[in-house]
Structure formats: structure tokens, C-alpha cells
């Protein structure tokens, strides 16, 4: 067993720990592992180029930017925030937990590309979340705003990840089935997908509780500042 | 034969990247211009690279590899640059009041059109030719939705399409090199696989495993999924490694674990790792850049405790169910 290619992992860990720019760190790690595994330089270059180009779909989100940018220029965020401020029954927790539920259900139907950070979080969910947080605590600091946005992005991630495996035709389930089939164990996709349901429910409950705790923390701080 | 294919979306991206490069060049932002231009060329030539590789000609892929290394050298030279907002706060507020809910329409068109294509795209055809190609139909739908939304947005905001491109370019420059990471990490995963990094990790993990303790074995498997996903940024890369090393030979064959439960819940343990790692750039670093957080790890921080809780819950389910 050749253990030397593991040094590529070490390059990643050290690079991130020292907070170097991530792009050269990742490329260095790939070159390190490839060379230590004994790949020839032309083959390694071809492998790097081919796999980079094959992953182009990951940059598809940039196509949302012109429309979103134009709407922001025309006041999309300001309107989302004002509207949130006028909705009486809508709290921060209700907004985020409602979004979590919708996101998870859509992911279960295989519709993971429908929402996401560029499509829905930046233009809609984050500004609405900030406005809802402002209703609780009018004196939001910049750090608070960052946290509200980060929680919105985290809610989007969690809804997507733990919903998608319940849908049978998606990548992960097919990968699991394919792996077992290669090793002589035949399973139907449905028998695998079903077991993702307990975690999907747990993820919904856990993230909802954390959102609620976040809201309560803001409420308490607002209360303390009113009393002071 | 079909009218709309994912390749057209890549050409649109290439055009947008080259536009961004051109605008940066005009503003004498040389490194930035070179960075986006190089990426634009990689997108424009991507189909050719893959076709040549398939036909046995490795030269275009090698050139693409050189371009990737050049991008890596350029990335640290791009300082974060905040473009001044193109409209003042008061102008945006006035426009928000004037336009009201119509502003939501184009934004909601993006998910809505994508949804419609994902649900009904298969059945649409024009003159006997399918409208959407089957591979990547949802993503093709997303690309179409973006074009529709841009047209709608320029109508609602009474702005021209070039102005939309400039606004998009403002956001793209704000994201900067972070946009590149998802693609690079996918390439890294491929290189790691080809170099046998996974096999080496599995060999190490089985070396430290105690004999005859099914619970500990399951725990090492679950934690291994998390750890390896943190390193690779992707549970899909961790899964075959951990399964081949520990899951299949030990848990399934020796201790009689249920393969369906082990596979499904093992993968979900890996997803908890995805929430924790900067290597999952498209979920953790790109949103932080997109939301303009001051801490690039802000999203990871916000979801760390959730990841921990979901991991504990999943592990408990797995332990209770898998050996039945």
C-alpha cells in the first residue's frame, strides 16, 4: 500500500489552517497526491483539466446573477424588508421554519435546484429574515445581521441535504444501490430511500429548535436592553 | 435531437464570464480580467476538451489543466473589491415603494420556471422535436428560468439588458475566486481517487479497529464518513471508500448489518460532515460570499451544532436498527 498520496490531504489541512487562499491550496493538494502516486505530469494535467471541465454545471448559479442584480438595483431587498415589517403574525422563527419545511419537501420530490443560496436566500429569505429580526430587536448590530443571514443559509443547506435522500431517483440512493450491486447485493432504491426518513424528521426538528433558540436569544437581549 | 441542451447554458456562462473580463479590462483590473477571461475560455471550450479526450486526444485536456494551474496562480492576486452600489439607498427605497410586489415576480420566476421544467419538461415538444434534452433537464430548466427572469426583471425595473449584465457582473466580482472552488474540489476528488488516497485511508482505519466489537466498528464507520467527507468536501467520495474498507467486509459480512439501513444512514452521516467543511465550497463558502458575510466561515459556524445534533440522532437510529 502506497501511503504517500495521503500527503495531499495534509496539504489541504495545513493550507486551510494557515488561512491561505483556498484555490492554490486545492490545486497544490491535487498535484501533490497525483505526483506521489506516480502519475506522469502530462497525465496529471489532463486529469486535472478533464475533471475541472466535467464539473462545469457547478457554476450554473452565475446565470441567476444578472436578474438578481437588476432587481436589487430596483429595490428588491428594501421591498422584501418593508413587507416583512408589515406582516403582523410573521416572526423570524415562523419564516425560517416555514422555509425549512418547504425546502425539505421540495428536495424530497427531487427538486433540489429550485431553491438555494443564489436563487432564494440572497434575494428573498435573508432580507426578510433581517426585517423579522429587526422587529424583535430594533438595534441589530452588523454582527447580528451577519448571523441572521448565516442562519438563513444554514437552514437552506439543511433542508436540502436531509430531504433529498428520501427521493428514490436522486444521486445518493443510486450510488448506494450501485455500490451494493457491484458487490453482489441486490436492493431496490425504495428500500434504501425509506431509511432516510428518520434522519429527515430529526433534521427538521433539530434545526427548528435551533432557529427558535436563536429567536429567543434575540428577544432576551432586546428585553435586557429595554430594562437597562 | 432536442432544442435546448445543457451545453447552451455553458455557452451563456462563457459569454457572461467574458463580458465580466472585458469590463474589468476596461477598468484596468488586469488580474481580474485575466482570471475571468481564462475561466470563460474553459467554459467555451469545455465540450471540445471532453470530445477530444473521448477520441483519445489528450492535448486539449492538458491545456485545460495548465489553464487551471494559471487560475490558481491568479486567484490570490484578486483582492476583494466592493463595487459601489449603482443606485443610492434612497433611490432604491423610492423604487421599492413604487414597484412593490411586482419586484417579487421575476425573482420567483426562477424557482417557478425551474419547477415547471422539472415536472413537465419531458412532455414538451415543438414539431416532433423534444424541447428539452433528457440529461440535466432540471439544470437546463434553471438556465432557461434565469433568462426568463432577466427579461422580466428588465421589464419590471425598466432597465436595459446590458444594465442587467453590469449588475450581474457586480455580484460576480463580489463573489470572486470563491466561485471557482466547487469545480476545483470536484477535480481534486477525481485526482484523489485516481491516486489511491481513499484506499490508503480505509487501510489505516481498519488497522486501528478493535476485534469483535460491532458497536465500536459502527462508530468508526460513522465517524469515518464524517471525517472523510470533511476532507473531501463530498459524501459521495467518502461513501465507496468507507464501505469498501469497513462497511461491507466487517459490518455487513461479519456482524450481519442490514445493508439498506447501513448504506442510507451512513451516507447521511457523511452529509453532517458536509455541513462542517470549507471543502464543500458551493454550500458553505459561496453562500457566505454571496451574502457578503464578513467571516467566510460564518455559514459553517451557524450550522455546526445542527450538524452535531443530526449526527448523534442518525447514529442512534443506525445503532438501534442496523443489527436487527
UniProtKB/TrEMBL annotation, chain A:
Keywords: Membrane, Transmembrane, Transmembrane helix. It comes from the Bacteria. Pfam families: DUF969 (PF06149). The lineage of its organism: Bacteria, Pseudomonadati, Pseudomonadota, Gammaproteobacteria, Lysobacterales. The chain crosses the membrane at residues 53-71, 92-115, 192-213. InterPro entries: DUF969. It comes from Dyella telluris. This is DUF969 domain-containing protein.
Amino acid at each position: 500500500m502506497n501511503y504517500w498520496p495521503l500527503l495531499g490531504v495534509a496539504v489541504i489541512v495545513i493550507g486551510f489552517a494557515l488561512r491561505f487562499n483556498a484555490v492554490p491550496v486545492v490545486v497544490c493538494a491535487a498535484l501533490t497526491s497525483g505526483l506521489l502516486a506516480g502519475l506522469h505530469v502530462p497525465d496529471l494535467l489532463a486529469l486535472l483539466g478533464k475533471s475541472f471541465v466535467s464539473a462545469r454545471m457547478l457554476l450554473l448559479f452565475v446565470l441567476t446573477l444578472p436578474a438578481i442584480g437588476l432587481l436589487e438595483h430596483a429595490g428588491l431587498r428594501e421591498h422584501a424588508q418593508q413587507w416583512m415589517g408589515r406582516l403582523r403574525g410573521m416572526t423570524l422563527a415562523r419564516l425560517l421554519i416555514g422555509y425549512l419545511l418547504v425546502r425539505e419537501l421540495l428536495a424530497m420530490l427531487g427538486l433540489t435546484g429550485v431553491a438555494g443560496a443564489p436563487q432564494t436566500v440572497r434575494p428573498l429569505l435573508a432580507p426578510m429574515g433581517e426585517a423579522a429580526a429587526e422587529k424583535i430587536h430594533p438595534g441589530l448590530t452588523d454582527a447580528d445581521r451577519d448571523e441572521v443571514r448565516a442562519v438563513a443559509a444554514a437552514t437552506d443547506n439543511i433542508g436540502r441535504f436531509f430531504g433529498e435522500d428520501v427521493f428514490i431517483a436522486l444521486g445518493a440512493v443510486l450510488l448506494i444501490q450501485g455500490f451494493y450491486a457491484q458487490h453482489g447485493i441486490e436492493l431496490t432504491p425504495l428500500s434504501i430511500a425509506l431509511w432516510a426518513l428518520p434522519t429527515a424528521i430529526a433534521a427538521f426538528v433539530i434545526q427548528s429548535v435551533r432557529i427558535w433558540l436563536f429567536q429567543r436569544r434575540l428577544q432576551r437581549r432586546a428585553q435586557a436592553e429595554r430594562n437597562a | 435531437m432536442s432544442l435546448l441542451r445543457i451545453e447552451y447554458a455553458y455557452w451563456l456562462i462563457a459569454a457572461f464570464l467574458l463580458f465580466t473580463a472585458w469590463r474589468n479590462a476596461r477598468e484596468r483590473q488586469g488580474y481580474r480580467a485575466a482570471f475571468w477571461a481564462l475561466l470563460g475560455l474553459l467554459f467555451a471550450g469545455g465540450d471540445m476538451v471532453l470530445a477530444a479526450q473521448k477520441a483519445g486526444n489528450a492535448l486539449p485536456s492538458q491545456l485545460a489543466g495548465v489553464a487551471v494551474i494559471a487560475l490558481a496562480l491568479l486567484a490570490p492576486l484578486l483582492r476583494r473589491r466592493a463595487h459601489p452600489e449603482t443606485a443610492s439607498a434612497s433611490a432604491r427605497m423610492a423604487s421599492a415603494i413604487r414597484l412593490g410586489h411586482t419586484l417579487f415576480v421575476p425573482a420567483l420566476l426562477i424557482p417557478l420556471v425551474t419547477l415547471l421544467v422539472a415536472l413537465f419538461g419531458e412532455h414538451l415538444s415543438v414539431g416532433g422535436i423534444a424541447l428539452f434534452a433528457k440529461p440535466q433537464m432540471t439544470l437546463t430548466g434553471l438556465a432557461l428560468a434565469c433568462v426568463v427572469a432577466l427579461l422580466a426583471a428588465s421589464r419590471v425595473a425598466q432597465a436595459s439588458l446590458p444594465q442587467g449584465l453590469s449588475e450581474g457582473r457586480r455580484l460576480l466580482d463580489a463573489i470572486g475566486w470563491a466561485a471557482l472552488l466547487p469545480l476545483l474540489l470536484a477535480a481534486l476528488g477525481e485526482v484523489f481517487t485516481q491516486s489511491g488516497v481513499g484506499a490508503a485511508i480505509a487501510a489505516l482505519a481498519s488497522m486501528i479497529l478493535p476485534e469483535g466489537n460491532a458497536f465500536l466498528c459502527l462508530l468508526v464507520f460513522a465517524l469515518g464518513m464524517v471525517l472523510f467527507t470533511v476532507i473531501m468536501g463530498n459524501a459521495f467520495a467518502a461513501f465507496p471508500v468507507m464501505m469498501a474498507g469497513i462497511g461491507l467486509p466487517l459490518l455487513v459480512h461479519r456482524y450481519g448489518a442490514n445493508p439498506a439501513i447501513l448504506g442510507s444512514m451512513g451516507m447521511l452521516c457523511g452529509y453532517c460532515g458536509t455541513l462542517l467543511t470549507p471543502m464543500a465550497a458551493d454550500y458553505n463558502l459561496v453562500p457566505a460570499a454571496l451574502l457578503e458575510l464578513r467571516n467566510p466561515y460564518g455559514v459553517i459556524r451557524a450550522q455546526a451544532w445542527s450538524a452535531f445534533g443530526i449526527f448523534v440522532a442518525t447514529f442512534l437510529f443506525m445503532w438501534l436498527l442496523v443489527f436487527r
